[in-house]
Amino acid sequence: MKLFPSRLPNVGTTIFTVMSRLANEHGAINLSQGFPDFSSPALLLERMTHHMQAGANQYPPMAGVAPLREAIADKVAALYDAHYDVESEITVTAGATQAIFTAIATCVRPGDEVIVFAPVYDSYLPAIELQGGLARVINLQPPGFRPDWQQVAAAINPRTRLIILNTPHNPTGTVWTADDMRELSRLVRNTDIVLLGDEVYEYIIFSGPHESLARYAELRERSFVVSSFGKTFHITGWKIAYCLAPAALTAEFRKVHQFNVFTVHHPSQLALADFMRAEPEFAAGLAGFYRAKRDFFRQQLAGSRFELLPSDGTYFQLARYEKINAMPDTEFARWLTIEKGVAVVPVSAFMPGGTDHGLIRFCFAKNETTLAAAGEKLRAV
What we know:
With 381 residues, the chain is an alpha/beta fold. The protein has 15 helices and 13 strands. The chain has helices spanning 15-26, 42-53, 66-80, 96-107, 124-130, 149-155, 178-188, 217-220, 229-232, 247-260, 266-278, 280-284, 286-300, 329-340, 368-379; strands at 29-30, 90-93, 113-118, 134-139, 160-166, 194-198, 223-228, 241-244, 307-308, 316-320, 342-343, 345-346, 359-363.
């Protein structure tokens, strides 16, 4: 049989899978893939078991169970003074990647252009390509990785359909400011451009509030806003998230959602609704929790030959390694994993075209024993 032409001829296995597999093969400490190595909240696990045993094991409503959507609405109102209708503007999704893919599939048509900021999370470009869209890449420059609004303005044209922003930003840890949101508002005013906010690290900001698209009425009316329960409650393996959007956008979003996922794991939704009501302080404490881990990890690398860049949000830390050797970042990441026992991600994996800034990404969402063991190895490099 002749193989059909690939829809994604330039796409291979994601870098996160590659580096985690390499870490497993060589017994390295895995600071590459962004998942915690500590437990989820005990009450959340207990409520999951409760709802499974109580019989919530069949299809839930397509948009998500009402108690969870109500809890999301209350949370967003409290955080951002933004009021989304439970029935028509909130959809529970099978992880943030599915929500992002669905939003892109909802509004991007062949020939449409989508503005993205690089380093760019690896799922965005394939999703755009599968819809026949064209990515217009705005390169963020180290060490600050801040958006250049003159470049964004120059990239906007009549074919611009969507702008995707990711704040707090993976992999750089950069956090967009209120000034950034005002500039974005100015540029999209009087256009038909749709916005997609990847805000999965919304609670993990180390100074100031999270400037969500939902916070700004002018932006909210044209935005899909995606957040992740996996990142917030240490349950990345549950693959559960949500998408906020005005009713007209949500109606189109759900047309796609119902045919690529239909609905999401039933007992997980009920457990999350219970937990959000019972322990709202858990999410509110994430910034302090991860700030302590960031600071502990940075202390572990004090005296090493790595140069640490600022990390204002997320649970990632970028570092330069030029004082160690001059390898390309992909080779350095493999060498560090195989020879030195610590797995990381090369930042060029987030760069369309593979631009190499000589940077690697560490994940510090780990127990202190894990971070201390990694630090001992890294100080010896």
